Amino acid sequence: MVVTGRDEVPATLTPDYDRASELKAFDDTKLGVKGLVDAGVIEIPRIFHHPPDTLDNSSSGRDTQISIPVIDLKGIEKDVIKRKEIVESIRDASETWGFFQLVNHGIPVSILEEMKEGVRRFHEQDTQVKKELYTRDPMRPVVYNSNFDLYSGPATNWRDTFLCQMAPDPPKLEDLPAACGDILEQYSKEVGKLGILLFELLSEALGLNPKHLNEIDCGEGLVVLCHYYPACPQPELTLGTTKHADNDFLTLLLQDQIGGLQVLHQDKWVEIPPVPGALVANIGDLLQARPRVSVASFFCTGFRPASKLYGPIKELLSADDPPKYRETTVRDYVAFFVEKGMDGTSALPHFRL
């Protein structure tokens, strides 16, 4: 499903420059976008300028009259009728939107708020501490950088990120960032439990045994990505997050009160306003993308070596409904996604039969 983070208008590009050199110079600072803001830039570097058509597409066709479904999980463990109603709501939301907001999901608001504050503490801490964690090695316990697709994406996003692979083999607490290690560990455990429940509900929505998606390890991996979008001096020229589809089974997104998240629905961009205590669920491709902070929890094993193949669920196939995609490992899928960068397209067509 397609998502973007934005508040932009068209810009004009100046292509007559050495983009590769400017990308490397920016990367070599190990300071990210936050470093540019701290240095007091009033004109953003050209690597952050997005093509006018991209900005036009993102800012036009907005629909403020509709909103994504909100699903209330209260009572789901005790009321059989309520559970059936929730499953029906999830089925409808997944088919028509690919997104829904979750409330009364069981994660205390105090944990959600502390997680957002922890992300802010990390990105706003002393630059020398952050520079020690700056890397493009996806197998490190903590991966901090600006734009995972810096060298492959068509334009650079105004965003810094750190991520941690929290399951199935979580890092030791001492290997997590000191600024937020405790809350990151606690938040990940809570999100992991919620993910198991959601995969049960999605299995039921597909007409399968409730254990099906968990038994094929859709919830085995959990990667927590913690994004930071500093205030931009020229927001009309850039994007916080390019239009994309997520390369996982399921994403649970925690956004702060600033907002800015939009999803593409029936060729129109729809705002997802922040709801206190809510999480945004996004059906990922593998199951079928003021300073602002967001925390995206990807149910995906990423680059971890694995030979298990994923493809269309055989129990749902028939002569009238044959498979549309070939089988692939999660690692190969993620590798292709990273190689192509966030170019506004899904990685799924590459695997279509």
TrEMBL record:
Cofactor(s) recorded in Swiss-Prot or TrEMBL: Fe cation
GO terms, molecular function:
dioxygenase activity; metal ion binding
Keywords from the UniProt entry: Iron, Metal-binding, Oxidoreductase
Q: Report the residue ranges that make up the Fe2OG dioxygenase domain in this protein.
A: 220-340
Instruction: Identify the domain of life.
Output: Eukaryota
What Pfam family does this protein match (any one)?
Answer: 2OG-FeII_Oxy
Instruction: Show which residues constitute the signal peptide.
Output: none
Kindly indicate whether the keyword Phosphoprotein belongs to this entry.
no
- Membrane-spanning parts: none
Keyword Iron in record: yes
Q: By its UniProt entry, which PANTHER family does this protein fall under?
A: 1-AMINOCYCLOPROPANE-1-CARBOXYLATE OXIDASE HOMOLOG 1, OXIDOREDUCTASE, 2OG-FE II OXYGENASE FAMILY PROTEIN
The record's comment on protein family reads: Belongs to the iron/ascorbate-dependent oxidoreductase family.
Protein name listed in UniProt: Fe2OG dioxygenase domain-containing protein
In its UniProt entry, the species of origin is given as Carpinus fangiana
